[in-house]
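Example record for the data management plan.
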Amino acid sequence: MPLPALVIGTAGHIDHGKTSLVRALTGVDLDRSPEEKARGITIQLGFVGASLPSGRRVSFVDVPGHERLVRTMVAGACGLDAALLCVSAVEGVMPQTREHLAILQLLGLRSGLVVLTCPDLVDADGLELARMDVEEAVVGTFLEGAPVLPVASGKALAGHEALRAALDALPAPERGAVGPFRLPVDRAFLRPGFGAVVTGTVRSGSVRDGDELVVLPTGQRARLRGLQRDGQPVERAQAGDRAALNLAGIEHAELGRGLVVSHPEALQPTAVIDVELELLPSAPALDDGARLRLLLGTAEVMAVVQTISAPQPEAELGPPLFPGDRLLAQLRCEAPLVALDGDRFVLRRESPVETIGGGVVLDARAPRIRRRDLHRAQAELLRLRAGDPSPLLDRAGALGLAEADPRAQQLPPGLGARLGDRRLAPAQLARHQRAVINALQAYHAAHPLRAGCPRREVRSAAVPELPERLFDALVQLLSDEGALVAEGPRLRLAGHTPDLDGPAGAALRRLTADLRAAGVTGPRLAELDAHPDLVQLLMESGVAVKVGDRLLHVEVTEQVKEAVRAHIRAAGGLSAQDCKALFDLSRQHAIPLLEWLDAQRVTVRAGDLRTLRGG
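Corresponding structural encoding:
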């Protein structure tokens, strides 16, 4: 079986043969635009697929070498598995060679080769000097110890077969096949007859032709109506594939580099990320709070850097950043982007324009850190950096993490507490439980005669931040633990019963006797405003019934039902006048009573008469 496919990017100084090397390996010239042809340099990203001798599939990403196009180079480096660092044997290592190498190092590449181009233009001593120059430049980088291969650009010249064999020997990459589908867009264009097309390297997950998709951070929806991998139509693309997506339902003008295509609800844009930051030895010293250009994936936004360390007394900002520093920091972006924990990024200074560092994302949806939280944030990020994902739950707050959230998928199965379809920090779930218990205790203390509290009142008082479905899950959890009892729309603490001892119990007994004595002309509810808890307790316990605006004893209502049934059976019907006479009521009292009988399904109205429902 051939090894997994590779995405390999070229890197190096301008005019060091990157595009010529790809042309020699694939037969495809990626400098296609008139401007590129006229100037003899690569301006846009180029992509082409090929097969190695073993049958292994490889996709080449040809990036510009000019210093003014480093942003384009970083976009092309997004999703690479390995790099081909091209160094001219004539010129040796140049400034852009070093910057490209530093960028690839910052982006976390761990595999690659060095190609000495134009070896036929120098003698043996010149070639050896170029080799020594390269070996010195790559010390301490991922290319230290990598093969350094002299390869000529012409098809008939030496070195190509050795290069193909070395590419075949590159290790299989580790890819996020189980994560959400994510394709950072590096090109967008209009294809006549097809519509909008975007290209990029699939960073994780997979996509199928026909899938519903979303473009982030704009949130626009689209449908995938055509999919290519290395220029060939396919039904499915997965992590590591160079893919072109034909999107329906979205205009070409709304697409561009820096956007991310994913499945709906799988990813969320962010504007605050916590990172481990590394400044290059060549970087200038920076003040905390410096404004820099952040390059992440194919996106680029301006961001403010705040260091995360113990605050100095009376200091408004953290310590300055010095060349070679490795530290924790928060990046506050001026525009939203899409990032996941573990993503790599590059930072550049605006003036003078230069790459100064980069690093790895520790928390892609970080809470904004204030000065008073620096100690706690530092401790959390140190744990994240050490491989402990539990601070993600602590930082997720009251709602925790949805099981479908990519961050939740980093958590070990037993970590955290489950609530519905979410995972919370155990301490957070305990806070929710205590809040509900405390709310019920306060309600019972304020209303000792009521059997329970309406669910909506408990939620509003205890956990208003929880959506109803999570509140229901919380109630079920407390009920399963025996802490509370759910009775229809009301909740009560386990063991709670209305307090009928003392004056309250005596008042309840007096009101019950008064209702029984009042018969069908029971008191109006408005007259009982001084006893709302007593009234509610009688109604909840079934002792009293609301009929119109009056309160009747349940025994009275049963007597009314029997009297009405007997009258209708004897007379064939019951009119309002009959009702008045039967119970010695005014019309004002009789009409609500008749309507209540209808609602109780004892009677049914037919014109001016009531008959028994069901005959």
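Summary line stored alongside the record: The longest helix spans residues 426-446.
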